[in-house]
Amino acid sequence: MAIYRYRAATASGQLRTGVLESNSRADALDRIKRLGLMPIEAVETAAKSAAEGKVKTNSAVRQGIANALGELAVLLNAGLSLDRALAVCVENIQKPALKAVFEKLRDRVRHGMSLSRAMTESGGAFPPMAAAMAEAGEASGKLDESMSRLAEALDRAEALRQTIVSSLVYPAMLLCVATGVILVMLLWVVPQFEGLFTDAGAKLPMQTQIIMGASHALKSYGLLGLLVAVVGVIMLMRWMRKPNVRRAFDRKLLEAPVLGAIVRNAETASFARTLGSLLDGGVALPAALSISRKSLSNTHMAAAIDSVSSGLKQGGGLSGPLAATKLFPPMAMSFLRTGEETAQLGLMLTRLADVLDRDVRNAIQRLISFMTPAVTVLMGGIVATVIASIMSAILGFNDLALGP
């Protein structure tokens, strides 16, 4: 994909600039129209330089950005100029990576660039909704309120992400310990008895033979198997990068039992929170819908949003086309219809996101509460099987020794 820098006009005649990724110039112009803008020009820029300027973000940086934007909103509300407010934010930031992001943002603003454009050219440090909400705040003269909504949305999104990651830490550690215990038994414990069984010369029980065979195979071909597994994972990851393969996988993922419902609710919550925040910040629905689409990591759901966005420009509503895709939870459709009927779509989307976030957390906790004992029982069963196979062979030798 190439990077295109564009200039476009709004329905009221205001000039807007930005950058986007697209396969071709025609596709870039089409995407600009989906934002509800009238394209003036779209010029391809060097993809290499864009990649070099890409900012890598992690959990600490994302949380720091949310906190810094919240502080920026407070300072703007207190009457400080944008330049001075950004300078104060930079002074209060301790982490070098985050400090560098806001220093560049401050410098661009000092050189006359708008905050929204500075965020757009930040190398991916800020999500697409940040620039959109900043632009809406600049147009309405309520930049402090827009930054406050943005900080709250980013903070909630990061909190949900951390909840999911934290919930998976213990089962992952338990699985690693279980795998380590099994490897130790097969590579070191079982071979200790191999000489005893060989000297005895008696026929081993089938269960013991299976365990011995597994130990031999692991010792002889373990490294080769590990190498094959690593190569297989790398090839699978490359294969999954193909758009048609990724979309097919995402479609099947939504159909999976238990996990599919969690993914569907989590994606819908992220989309609803982003769209609601943009609408409350004064962004027009077509542009907000196009930007919110980027919050969806599931490509199958994102493609459905593209079709809904095209129908929206033709005068259709939002709840009807979304319901027709049959990809979003029925609860979401109820909230959307209520929001459209009461002209409070942004508020209802935010409340929907709160409800779905709670459902996702509860579902993950239930899944983890099942996975933890399941992994424990599985580990105990495998270890017990290894020990039982060895003990049955030893007891069999004792019976032969005591026999007539």
- Total domains, how many? 3
Q: What is the global morphology? A: elongated
* Rg of Cα set: 28 Å
User: How many distinct helices?
Assistant: 17
Largest sheet descriptor: 3 strands, antiparallel
- Helix vs. strand class: mainly alpha
Order of strands, main sheet, comes to: 2-1-3
Determine the strand fraction and express it as a percent band: 5-15%
Q: Flag low-confidence runs.
A: 46-52, 400-404
Order of helices and strands: EEHEHHHHHHHHHHHHHHHH
Compute the separation of the termini in Å.
82 Å
Number of strands: 3
Mean pLDDT: 81
What is the helix content? Answer: over 70%
Please provide a written account of the structure.
This protein has 404 residues and is mostly helical. It has 3 domains: 2-52; 59-153, Receptor-associated Protein (Up-down Bundle), CATH 1.20.81.30; 154-404, no CATH class. The chain is 76% helix and 6% strand. A 3-stranded antiparallel β-sheet has the order 2-1-3.
Summarize the structure.
With 404 residues, the chain is mainly α. The chain has 17 helices and 3 strands.
Element layout with pairings:
Blueprint: E1 2-9, E2 15-22, H1 25-34, E3 38-45, H2 47-52, H3 59-77, H4 82-92, H5 96-110, H6 115-120, H7 128-140, H8 143-192, H9 194-200, H10 206-240, H11 243-255, H12 259-280, H13 285-292, H14 299-312, H15 319-325, H16 330-342, H17 345-402
Antiparallel strand pairs: 1-2, 1-3
Helix pairs in contact: 3-4, 3-8, 4-5, 7-8, 8-10, 8-12, 8-17, 10-17, 11-12, 12-13, 12-17, 15-16, 16-17
